[in-house]
């Protein structure tokens, strides 16, 4: 459950949503709906790490820096790759 006071986001406030980790996108979707309900304007959504699955996510208009593919149970290695091109 997410709650905010009515004064937390003034009408027409420009809001950038930033999340550290996204699995299905429920938190980002909920925050976006909350901002819109308060007459705010979501200018973008950024995520540090998004999982590869499930795909598609509950939102599709976000930017992620890394994609998490999983953890190998035998070697305990984490599979994560940058989304951006390193050119």
UniProtKB/TrEMBL annotation:
Which chain regions cross the lipid bilayer?
none
Q: Which residues form a coiled coil?
A: none
Task: Read off the SUPFAM superfamilies from this record.
Answer: PRTase-like (SSF53271)
What name appears for this protein in its UniProt entry?
Answer: Pur operon repressor PurR
Record organism: human gut metagenome
């Amino acid at each position: 459950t997410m709650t905010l006071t009515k004064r937390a986001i003034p009408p027409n406030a420009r809001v950038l949503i930033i999340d550290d980790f996204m699995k299905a996108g429920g938190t980002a979707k909920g925050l976006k709906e909350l901002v819109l309900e308060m007459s705010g304007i979501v200018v973008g959504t950024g995520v540090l790490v998004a999982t590869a699955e499930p795909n598609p996510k509950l939102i599709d208009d976000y930017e992620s820096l890394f994609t998490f593919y999983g953890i190998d149970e035998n070697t305990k290695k984490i599979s994560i790759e940058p989304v951006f091109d390193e050119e």
